[in-house]
Write a structure and sequence with these properties.
The chain has 139 residues and is of the alpha+beta class. It contains 3 helices and 6 strands. The strands form 2 sheets. It has a 3-stranded antiparallel beta sheet. A 3-stranded antiparallel beta sheet has the order 4-5-6, with helices on one face. A hairpin with a 2-residue loop joins strand 5 and strand 6. Helix 2 packs across helix 3. It is globular and about 50 Å long.
Length: 139
């Protein structure tokens, strides 16, 4: 099974933040279509270096880059809901308000994602919103 690729909007936000990892997928800004580099006879690369292309990483790679480059610690974890006797996933990320003062942000206790991939995609959305809302310094 192929890992999920970020949405066009997420890819555009990552490009703005300075995402620079080599990837195999990219979006074309003109038609907002997703392309596989091999099909387009291109090698994997950092497509963000080109004005009309946007690198399209997997959700996992995007979150790894955020953790390593922006130092926002985030992840998805499995949970068992004792009320509904179901298994699923939730997400959490940490930000620093002051010196060594971490603040946890997490999915709602009633939100239980059926798959790891769904929880990870939602986590990426919330982390990108946080970065945008608080104008996190990325360069």
């Amino acid at each position: 099974m192929q890992e999920p690729i970020v949405t066009f909007k997420q890819a555009a936000q990552l490009k703005e933040l300075g995402f620079n990892a080599k990837v195999t997928h990219f979006y074309d800004v003109l038609d907002q279509m997703l392309y596989l580099s091999f099909v387009q006879k291109r090698s994997p690369g950092n497509f963000n270096e080109e004005e009309t292309l946007i690198s399209a990483p997997t959700t996992s790679l995007a979150l790894d880059w955020i953790r390593n480059s922006l130092k926002i610690y985030c992840g998805v974890y499995p949970v068992a809901d004792s009320r509904s006797f179901s298994l699923g996933y939730r997400w959490k990320y940490y930000t620093i308000k002051g010196e060594d003062d971490p603040v946890a942000h997490e999915s709602s206790p009633v939100s239980l994602y059926q798959t790891f991939a769904l929880a990870e995609a939602e986590l990426l959305t919330f982390v990108l919103e946080y970065i945008n809302d608080y104008k996190i310094n990325t360069h």
